[in-house]
Write a structure and sequence with these properties.
Strands 1, 2, 3, 4, 5, 14, 15, 16 and 17 form a nine-stranded mixed sheet that branches. With 580 residues, this protein is an alpha/beta fold. It contains 17 helices and 31 strands. It is elongated. The protein folds into two domains: 74-320, Metal-dependent hydrolases (TIM Barrel, Alpha-Beta Barrel), CATH 3.20.20.140; 384-576, no CATH class. Helix 3 packs across helix 4.
Length: 580
């Protein structure tokens, strides 16, 4: 991405020959280049930093703000996330993220793309214009993620090509079809080559190593955000990949990867959240939360801030972002405590966008009209019988072993509980029934399996947020409640719900493609709190079971997952039978 043309007025302010639009005096500027904190005065002209000098060097401005010794740092940048995971469209997401110091995010509209295709991507781009948050787009590379699920759309390289002409596109998003990339699949390489010709190509290769990883890197893929161990990350670093340390609402990898950050390696890391729920954004924060955690774990503040800003900007070829430096956008954060930074003031292009934890800038233009589709289409005769699993005599079944803090799962082999000739849920052993129902076309495709780790004691929960195809995922101890939950989401056009004895306890409607709410962020947070309270009433001990539930259908992260086509052995990359 190129800088805009040089503005002679910017140079005049930098030389001290003209008055600045804004002067930030009395600052302690965080120098992310040399990892120091220096007393400074900063001059801003038309949304860009003209000069950074010693105190008093820049003093003439139409507006002068004395920071009185507060820290001044570049705005934070999320290196990889799906805005849809917040269950909010871009404007409402910005209203939560900007007060935490996030001034830009590299967004992969992969979720809505799997539901609505290219029109969904264009809708997200349009909804992201004119915000105090700089929405940067990495175009979705895998729609569907692979051949082992049914998505609402299919996007090929030719469909993506025109989107790369959009000004805020920085590259091709996570190439999840790593087997196709490694094998040199022509359709996969067509997308990779398109990304390489227009920007960077980001990776997604959990557990990949050895010669296969070499082939993946040789294809031009330059990053990965799926590392869960230090050994995995180190191998990828040594082969030249940039590692995005992920610390979101579902996967939390900071503790395992931070020991690899040293003065020699720090420039090879960025921070990302991937998926972040609205209450977590509001209560804990965004990238600032990751920065605070890194500092608490022993990383010095300037390095932590550089990982959260400069390194991401450099990875994506953004020469005007990520630093308090001349020529850079005046996307800036003011905070008072370098041991636990919390934004007191946030500037977007030189304008105050948030103050004392509250957004003050407009949240963009009205949302554009949504493309058709994206609701829930279920078979008219869908009944509990569709979820019945006949027992064929096997001594063991494959059970998904879920870890609420990781996206990877286990492939467990457990004896089934059999009643009336059918395999049923066994709450005593925390083995629940899981179904994934295709919702885009109204087909009768339903995958049924079992999962351990949720702890639900009764009833059912369901969600149309089901990565990546976003079919309807429903988990339960009772088949009738599972069908009732699916019907409840059909009625509201998508969302999440909890059901017991056929009665809907709580619902979070997500009418925008079954992924996002059309309500203000505060209302969504309230609805989500009521929903999570309902899941606790069903005996679920997890803080938020819907986040791990959303990843149970994801057939590109090992080990065992469930799609509408059946159980997926992700290592073998094939459908496998329930009875082992």
């Amino acid at each position: 991405m190129r800088r805009p043309p040089i503005d002679p007025g910017l140079l005049a302010v930098a030389r001290g020959d003209a008055e600045a639009d804004l002067v930030l005096a009395g600052a302690r500027a965080v120098d992310v280049f040399t990892r120091r904190v220096l007393p400074a005065s900063v001059a801003v002209w038309r949304g860009r930093i003209a000069g950074v000098g010693a105190p008093g060097v820049y003093a003439r401005g139409r507006r002068v703000i004395d920071l009185r010794g507060a820290f001044l740092a570049p705005g934070l940048i999320d290196a990889h996330m799906h805005c849809e995971s917040t269950m909010l469209p871009p404007g409402e997401f910005a209203a939560l993220a900007v007060p935490h110091g996030t001034t830009a995010a590299v967004l992969d509209p992969h979720e809505i793309a799997n539901v609505l295709g290219v029109p969904g991507i264009r809708w997200m781009m349009e909804a992201g214009r004119g915000l105090p948050l700089r929405c940067l787009w990495a175009l979705s590379s895998c729609v569907p993620s692979c051949h082992l699920e049914t998505a609402g759309a299919r996007i090929e390289a030719a469909d993506l090509a025109p989107l790369f002409d959009e000004p805020d596109v920085v590259g091709l998003a996570e190439m999840m079809n790593f087997p196709g990339a490694v094998a040199g699949d022509p359709a996969v390489l067509a997308k990779v080559n398109l990304g390489l010709s227009r920007g960077v190509v980001d990776g997604h290769a959990p557990g990949l190593g050895g010669p296969a990883l070499c082939a993946y890197a040789a294809a031009g893929i330059t990053s990965d955000h799926e590392c869960t161990t230090g050994e995995e990350a180190l191998e990828k670093l040594r082969l030249g990949l940039h590692v995005h340390i992920r610390e979101g609402s579902a996967a939390r990898n900071l503790g395992a990867l931070l020991p690899l950050v040293t003065p020699a390696t720090a420039h090879l890391f960025s921070f990302c959240t991937d998926d972040r729920h609205p209450a977590d954004l509001h209560d804990e924060g965004h990238i600032d939360h990751v920065v605070r955690r890194a500092i608490a774990l022993g990383l010095d503040m300037p390095t932590a801030w550089a990982i959260g800003s400069l390194h991401t900007a450099r990875h994506y070829g953004l020469p005007d972002a990520g630093a308090v430096a001349p020529g850079h956008r005046a996307d800036l954060v003011v905070f008072d405590d370098d041991r636990a930074p919390r934004a007191r003031l946030v500037f977007s292009a030189g304008e105050i966008a948030a103050e004392d934890g509250r957004a003050v800038a407009a949240s963009g233009r009205p949302r554009p009209p949504l493309p058709p589709g994206g609701g829930v289409r279920l078979p008219a005769d869908l009944s509990p019988a569709a979820l019945r699993v006949p027992h064929r005599g096997g001594a063991a079944i494959r059970v998904i072993g879920m870890d609420p803090h990781q996206l990877v799962t286990e492939d467990l082999r457990l004896p089934p509980r059999v009643e009336g000739g059918a395999i049923v849920a066994d709450t005593g052993r925390d083995v629940l029934k899981l179904a994934v129902i295709e919702r885009h076309r109204g087909s009768e495709r339903i995958g049924v399996g079992f999962v351990r780790g949720f702890g639900l004691q009764r009833g059912a929960i369901a969600s149309t947020v089901g990565h990546d195809a976003h079919n309807l995922a429903v988990l339960g101890a009772d088949d009738a409640d599972m069908i009732a939950a699916a019907r409840a989401l059909e009625a509201c056009g998508g969302g999440q719900c909890a059901v017991e004895n056929g009665r809907v306890l709580a619902t979070l409607p997500l009418p925008i493609a079954g992924l996002m709410s059309d309500r203000p962020a505060a209302e969504v947070i309230t609805q989500q709190a009521a929903l999570l309270a309902a899941t606790r009433a069903l005996g679920c001990p997890l803080h938020d079971p819907f986040m791990p539930l959303s990843f149970m259908p994801l057939p590109v992260i090992p080990r065992l997952k469930l799609s509408d086509l059946g159980l997926v052995d992700v290592v073998k990359f094939e459908i496998v039978p329930l009875e082992a």
